[in-house]
Write a structure and sequence with these properties.
The complex is a heterodimer of chains A (157) and B (168).
Chain A: H1 3-13, E1 18-21, E2 29-32, H2 38-47, E3 55-63, E4 68-76, E5 81-89, E6 95-97, H3 106-117, E7 120-122
Parallel strand pairs in A: 2-5, 6-7
Antiparallel strand pairs in A: 1-2, 3-4, 4-5
Chain B: H1 2-11, H2 17-34, E1 38-39, H3 46-54, E2 67-68, E3 76-80, H4 88-97, E4 103-107, H5 109-113, E5 136-138, H6 145-161
Parallel strand pairs in B: 1-2, 1-3, 3-4, 4-5
Helix pairs in contact in B: 2-6, 3-6
Chain lengths: 157, 168
């Protein structure tokens, strides 16, 4: 299955859940319409016999300056497929469901997203400090509006 | 350390004892400067240049600089590479574990003042002089082996001027 066939297959099967995003990237990229569908969508693409997305390559948060986004990058090692999807999250309701039960490897990615962006993860089994120092008390450093006493922004040139 | 530090105090009361202490000073400082053993402490790309300096082409050994894997046996930390805020306390711990007299060389832009991580970084310490006292700063990203050799020769010059009484 090549790129176009994969994109068509996904759009046919999940026409009510996702819509395509044009990025020029090598992999198809989709927008998940409703964040509530996340776990169900992930489980379906993992268990679908044609897809078998058995590997979560990466999952991370993004702060665009207007809202958060959460990006997932999936791969099928068995069927040699790749595709990505993302969905926006408002600042005041930054909370997502854990996909740990679908891919156990999501655990560390979600801890990282939680501690760097302050996006809360529901149903996560060990939400504690991951990359930052253990005594860190300065908030969420990857947010656009983050500041600290010795932190300097790159001046505009 | 106690006996050696008190030695000049007693000797200088004896007529002609000053000659003994000044000769001891030069012997001690010469031996120290000629065998500055450094701690293996490479945290980023500067460590590659440090390895190149230690290898046969630049031959660090001819200055008496030999790497040690334990802070108990070293006289010098060459902080080669980015020190993050998480690594800072570890650097301090290693420094505290070294026997005196002890020296620190800050190698590369990151350890001198944050370097390429000066702006937009929440994780990198902006200069290791916030953590440990630094004797010689070597700028560069990373500095070439020649710069490191020059820095070590500068440190040797500094060590040779020290007296027994200066030891802390």
């Amino acid at each position: 299955m090549n790129r176009e066939e994969l994109a068509k297959y996904l759009l046919d099967k999940f026409s009510d859940k996702i819509e395509p995003l044009e990025t020029g990237k090598a992999e198809p990229f989709f927008l998940l319409k409703k964040p509530e569908d996340l776990v169900e969508f992930c489980r379906t693409v993992r268990d679908d016999a044609t897809l078998r997305m058995d590997f979560l390559c990466m999952m991370c948060g993004v702060d665009t300056g207007e809202n958060f986004e959460v990006v997932y990058s999936l791969a099928s090692i068995k069927n040699r497929l790749r595709f990505d999807f993302k969905f926006p999250l408002p600042y005041d309701k930054a909370e997502i469901d854990s996909v740990q039960e679908v891919w156990a490897g999501a655990n560390w990615f979600e801890r990282e997203t939680w501690e760097l962006y302050g996006i809360n993860i529901r149903n996560h089994d060990s939400l504690k400090r991951f990359l930052l120092p253990d005594n860190w008390d300065q908030g969420f450093p990857m947010r656009k509006n983050w500041d600290a006493p010795d932190f300097k922004r790159m001046p505009e040139v | 350390m106690g006996i050696i530090k008190k030695l000049p105090v007693y000797l200088e009361k004896i007529p002609g004892g000053g000659i003994v202490t000044t000769s001891l000073d030069s012997i001690f400082s010469y031996s120290q400067a000629s065998s500055l053993w450094y701690l293996l402490f490479g945290t980023a790309c500067c460590a590659i240049e440090l390895m190149a300096t230690g290898a046969s082409r630049y031959d660090f050994d001819r200055l008496g600089m030999i790497f040690r894997a334990s802070p108990r046996q070293s006289d010098l930390i060459i902080a080669a590479g980015t020190i993050t805020k998480k690594m800072g306390p570890r650097l301090r711990l290693l420094y505290d574990q070294m026997a005196e007299p002890r020296y620190v060389i800050a190698m590369g832009g990151c350890t001198v003042g944050g370097g390429p991580f000066y702006y937009d970084s929440y994780a990198v310490e902006k200069g290791i002089d916030h953590i440990v006292p630094v004797d010689v700063y070597i700028p560069g990203c990373p500095p070439r082996p020649e710069s490191l050799l020059e820095g070590c020769l500068t440190l040797q010059k500094k060590v040779k001027t020290l007296k027994i009484q200066d030891w802390s």
